[in-house]
Design brief:
CATH topology of the largest domain: Uridine Diphospho-n-acetylenolpyruvylglucosamine Reductase, domain 3
Structural class: alpha+beta
Radius of gyration: 19 Å
Distance between the termini: 49 Å
Helix content: 25-40%
Largest sheet: 5 strands, antiparallel
Strand order of the largest sheet: 4-5-8-6-7
Shape: globular
Number of helices: 13
CATH class of the largest domain: Alpha Beta
CATH architecture of the largest domain: 2-Layer Sandwich
Strand content: 15-25%
Bound molecules: flavin-adenine dinucleotide, iron/sulfur cluster
């Protein structure tokens, strides 16, 4: 690891100033410190943001909840009201890594984590995402990669919380150039759809302050399938949120993770599910719509039946 300065920011304004041109915000460090050790990311200064005031609160509300960017994933998992009001978010948090990781990892860091593509994470490989010339995964081992992409990079978004928050229609509040900017989850990742070097839409210096989650959908669920029971990312994940009126889905949103550089959503699937009772035929057609146009790589076609199963199971959980 190369030497760096370590400073602690005491206000959001000073955090941006302290960052300078080659600094990185440090929250729990689970992602950033690994990248620094492996020489994937360079930083001459780490700006510790853990002491920033007010970003470590969970604030319930009648219309929406606010969850600060420094709230740990364990706090989200363990919050008794989140378990009741946003069960899908609770489930997504509970599936992150391991207890030790969840104790330290923050909401903001989870949303801003970098690609897990093993070529990207290899210190000696300069792939397209690291501004090299080619994507090694396309001709290589792409078993964990995407089924959809808008550019050459096939590395998918792997943040559990991003997928659950997408289904819940959450908004990220980001401090950019001194102004608070509201970004939907789709906007928070949209740059990664087109741009192979992007992991998300955040610009250098952007600071996620909090997310706001509307309470309008009373039911939510999140499921994933991983190779290992713990300490592992999902192969595919699925989140759904809706209301249920007389057994029929209302205001449905479904999002899939680990199959696209952005949380995968299909408006036609959400529209199709509107007002439907989620029986087998309905769920199968919703899965058809969600996975239409999927382009499996040489080693990841298994993700399609896995995603179909998760879509069915997750939507069924909304009835529970
Ligand atoms: C073994 C292992 C298994 C894992 N499994 C999963 C999994 O199953 N699902 C999953 O979702 N994740 C998983 N993770 C990833 C883990 O959840 C993230 O690394 C962690 O959430 C990052 O949070 P952090 O606070 O430690 O971030 P840091 O490492 O401190 O920061 C990560 C990045 O985000 C930036 N950042 C941090 N906070 C902010 C902010 N407020 N605003 C703007 N930028 C910010 C940092 O500059 C850095 O670039 C796993 C990690 C490990 C090591
Ligand atoms: S998928 Fe993306 S991150 Fe992985 S090798 Fe290709 S360009 Fe690099």
């Amino acid at each position: 690891m190369k030497p760096f300065e370590f400073v602690t920011a005491l206000s959001t304004e000073s955090a941006r100033e302290l960052l300078g041109p080659k600094g990185q915000y440090l929250a729990g460090g689970n992602d950033l410190l690994g990248r620094l050790k492996d020489d994937i990311t360079e930083a001459t200064r780490l700006v510790n943001i853990k002491a920033l005031p007010d970003l470590n609160r969970i604030e319930p509300g009648a219309d929406h909840w606010r969850i600060g960017a420094l709230v740990t994933i364990a706090q989200i998992e363990d919050h008794p009201e989140i378990r009741k009001v946003f069960p899908g978010l609770h489930q997504a948090a509970a599936e992150v890594g391991s207890q030790q990781i969840r104790n330290v990892a923050t909401l903001g860091g989870n949303l801003a984590q970098h690609s897990r593509c093993w070529y990207y994470r290899h210190r000696d490989i300069q792939c397209l995402k690291k501004r090299g010339r080619i994507c090694y995964a396309i001709e290589g081992d792409n078993r964990y990669h995407a089924l959809f992409t808008g550019n050459v990079c096939i590395s998918p978004v792997v943040s559990n919380l991003a997928i659950a928050l997408t289904a819940l229609d959450a908004t990220a509040i980001v401090l950019r150039d001194g102004q608070e900017r509201r970004m939907s989850m789709a906007e928070l990742y949209e740059l990664a759809w087109d741009n192979p070097t992007a992991h998300h839409s955040l610009r250098p210096g952007d600071l996620i302050l909090r997310v706001e989650i509307p309470t309008q959908r009373r039911r939510s669920a999140y499921l994933q399938i991983s190779e290992k029971h713990a300490f592992d990312w999902a192969l595919v994940s699925c989140a759904a949120a809706a209301n249920l009126e007389n057994g029929r889905l209302r205001n449905v949103r479904v999002a899939l993770g680990c199959i696209s550089p952005v949380p995968h959503q299909v408006a036609a699937a959400n529209q199709f599910l509107e007002g439907k009772a989620p029986d087998d035929d309905v769920l199968d057609h919703a899965a058809d719509l969600l996975l239409a146009g999927a382009e499996p790589q040489t080693h990841n076609a298994y993700k399609i039946p896995m995603a179909r199963a998760l879509i069915r199971r997750t939507l069924r959980q909304l009835q529970a």
